[in-house]
């Protein structure tokens, strides 16, 4: 009996020391863990922290990932994606030393012109003979060529891979179906590049034939210092002088559809089963501050901010041209400045500088 008791006592003692040893090891492990956790520079600590992060931390990580992407905004570079260095290049007007030149109206545009549409009298001009990139002002010529072709406006056009490639950012996704009339409206009102390109692509003979027709039309209306290379204006090879743009404005004004479509404030279309709202790129049209009969905006880095308009001021139809304006809103401010200047003129003035032939 005594032997059995001693045997059991020995087993109990062994268990006690075993448990004590396990406890000591556990305490050492916890202490080591806490010490490493307090060291925020330790890679192991960072790994542990990330593994025990709560759900909100994951949500924040997603937000950071999204913010690291390029923000969705108006493109600062609207040239072809094969030319990423375009963003760093100055405008052509800047390279020629035209930007920042002073004029009597203190305009922010490097090139400007004010012409009486009826009499062709020039009331104001600034570097009006220099040919410069015109960006999406090109789309006025695109519209005239489309309408001159007499192609059915209710024909169905489909945005294909070529249209998608011409401009990376657009709500007209590949496979979008729209009529020729709808494409024309979006090109003029919202300056939709894919819409303009598909209009040229669906011209008999495709883009090459369309560009040839654009240059023939330019010659017919007296644009002797101009050249067109594509229907969107994304290429800096699309150039014209302010004098030629005044002629193009006057010619485009003869098309009722161009007048109407270029001055629509906004439009909602269903694209890819979702309603999409398109706004006029000209804030003066959206605001209704001026009596605008026709307009077109434009921007690529080579051209700067551009604007052409036909507007009635003091019951006089004026052709307004502004190229290479500094700042996002300066071209519109220049238009308002010209309007105010003309409205302050006494009856019978201003005196014409010359006549646009």
- In which order are the strands of the major sheet placed? 9-10-11-1-2-12
| Largest sheet properties | 6 strands, antiparallel
Number of contiguous helices: 13
Order of H and E elements: HHHHEEEHEHEHHHEHHEEHEEEHE
Quaternary status: single chain
Rg (CA only):
33 Å
Number of strands: 12
Distance between the termini: 133 Å
Question: Judging from the principal axes of the Cα atoms, what is the shape?
Answer: globular
The residue ranges in which pLDDT falls below 50 over 5 or more consecutive positions are 1-87
Binned, the helix content reads 40-55%
Structural class category: alpha+beta
List the helices and strands and how they pair.
Elements: H1 2-38, H2 43-51, H3 55-67, H4 92-95, E1 109-116, E2 121-126, E3 132-133, H5 138-148, E4 156-158, H6 161-166, E5 177-179, H7 180-189, H8 193-201, H9 206-220, E6 239-240, H10 242-252, H11 256-262, E7 266-271, E8 274-279, H12 283-287, E9 291-300, E10 304-313, E11 316-325, H13 330-343, E12 354-355
Antiparallel strand pairs: 1-2, 1-11, 2-12, 3-6, 4-5, 7-8, 9-10, 10-11
Describe this structure in words.
Strand 1 and strand 2 (121-126) form a beta hairpin. This protein has 13 helices and 12 strands. The protein is an alpha+beta fold. It starts with a helix and ends with a strand. Strands 9-10-11-1-2-12 form a 6-stranded antiparallel sheet, sandwiched between helices. A two-stranded antiparallel ribbon has the order 3-6. A two-stranded antiparallel ribbon has the order 4-5. It has helices at residues 2-38, 43-51, 55-67, 92-95, 138-148, 161-166, 180-189, 193-201, 206-220, 242-252, 256-262, 283-287, 330-343; strands at residues 109-116, 121-126, 132-133, 156-158, 177-179, 239-240, 266-271, 274-279, 291-300, 304-313, 316-325, 354-355.
